[in-house]
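Continuing the series of single-chain predictions for the mutant panel. This is the parent chain; the variants come on the following pages.
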Amino acid sequence: MRALTEKVLGKTWDALRSGIADSVVPGSGGIAMLGDSITHFGRWDLLFPDARTRNFGISGERSGHLLMRLDPLVRLKPDKVFILIGTNDLASGLKPDDIASNVDSLLGQLRNALPDAALHLQGVMPRARRYADRIRVLNAAYRDLASRHSAAFIDLFPVFDDGSGELDSRCTLDRLHLNGAGYARWRDALAAYV
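Parent structure:
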């Protein structure tokens, strides 16, 4: 099923990746938001109107995909990078250790290519309750990775947890993607770092 999904989405992903790569103004800096659909759907220009945000989110992507598309982000030379990735990895059956290994490589490459950039690794948000234990394990690994790579760790799980390990229903329509109230809550969690 995963191979079929990737084949069907492949052209769309290629077009989105090319669109990002083609639109980067090298050296223009700003704040890069890197991730999957949760990042992709964020109106960062409206959430942080006084910041120069650049949206590098692509719907459906996993940690391994980010490793393949860092060149445009590096060419941008952002001042800050915010990374949110992992929920699609978990849904596709990847183990937290494998996801953490990809994110370890991602942070290492970004730290080497952008030594002066402030890196921010965000913990995976809750989604349907059945994912809660694996998300907690992954977020614990992320906390350690952030420390090893001199990145800030922003734990979003408690920000969005409804108390049972599920995404707060006031912030979502589908127990995965955020609605307006969810993006406002995320903005508030990131405000001190932006």
